[in-house]
Amino acid sequence: xxxxxxxxxxxxxxxDSLRLSCRVSELNFGSYGMNWVRQAPGKGPEWVSYVTTGxxxxxxxxxxxxxxxxxxxxxxxxxxxxxxxxxxDTGVYYCNVGDDWGQGTQxxxxx
Length: 111
Prior knowledge:
Layout: E1 3-7, E2 10-12, E3 18-25, E4 34-39, E5 45-51, E6 57-59, E7 67-72, E8 77-82, E9 91-97, E10 100-101, E11 105-109
Parallel strand pairs: 2-11
Antiparallel strand pairs: 1-3, 3-8, 4-5, 4-9, 5-6, 7-8, 9-10, 9-11
């Protein structure tokens, strides 16, 4: 059974940074692209970013230039570096591969 564990969320002020981590086990990690998806309070899920097996990255428009996704295949981990955070970035951030999801990590951006 694939296990996905996100961490790194927290309460920060606008303009601050956070680095989310997602560790995946029981999976040939290097063979899969990885997604970050977020869900704001009262809204549906929103895809945020994707990294291919070869490290090519994609972002939703609202985070381009502020967020950076990366992966460390030796550590079975994908990261999301989030800079210049805005209140609208608030939500639960989930790591996803195929049909498997983590439990999420809460990010709150508020002054």
